[in-house]
Design goal:
This protein has a single domain, classed as STM4215-like (2-Layer Sandwich), CATH 3.30.2000.20. 24% of the residues are buried. The strands form 2 sheets. Strands 1, 2, 3, 6, 7 and 8 form a 6-stranded mixed beta sheet that branches. Strands 4-5 form a two-stranded antiparallel sheet. 19% of the residues lie in helices and 40% in strands. The protein is an alpha+beta fold and 144 residues long. It holds the Pfam family Phage_tail_terminator_5. This is Tail terminator.
């Protein structure tokens, strides 16, 4: 099914781009809203999508809109293996969504204008979690 709504197109663009990336080591991706059963002792990447604002750029009756939000990619790593490997993967994710990244989907361009933020590792057995927050924005023409 093709994405038709603005937020659906944005998520489709982000997930499509993510699907084309490779990380070392290769990691399965838990997508938002899709059943996923992590394997014990096997690292994976968890994607979360948070559209959090849409505003008018000018007069309300005929204005373009700007949508903005967060795409959080969490490196989930087995505990007891230290922090270096999950932090290395988090750095790979940060580089993959570098400031200046542009993702096209139909009539929308998803813009990453800031360096993604790598959060502090959270060690909660049986997993260490390192979130990478990607801030995105999309301009939508008034007639779209």
């Amino acid at each position: 099914m093709a994405a038709t709504g603005t937020e659906a197109k944005i998520l489709d663009a982000l997930l499509g781009y993510l699907a084309g990336l490779t990380f070392a080591p290769p990691l399965p991706v838990a997508q938002p809203g899709v059943a996923f059963a992590p394997q014990t002792g096997k690292a994976y990447l968890e994607a979360s999508f948070y559209p959090n604002t849409a505003g008018l750029d000018g007069l309300p009756f005929d204005s373009d809109r700007t949508h903005a939000g967060l795409f959080v990619l969490t490196v989930v790593w087995p505990t007891g293996q230290g922090l270096l490997k999950p932090l290395d993967v988090a750095a790979q994710v940060r580089r993959a969504f570098a400031a200046g990244t542009r993702l096209w989907r139909d009539d929308l361009v998803v813009c990453v204008d800031e360096v993604p933020q790598v959060d502090a590792p959270v060690d909660e057995a049986p997993w260490v979690r390192v979130a990478v927050t990607v801030r995105w924005r999309v301009g939508v023409p008034a007639d779209a």
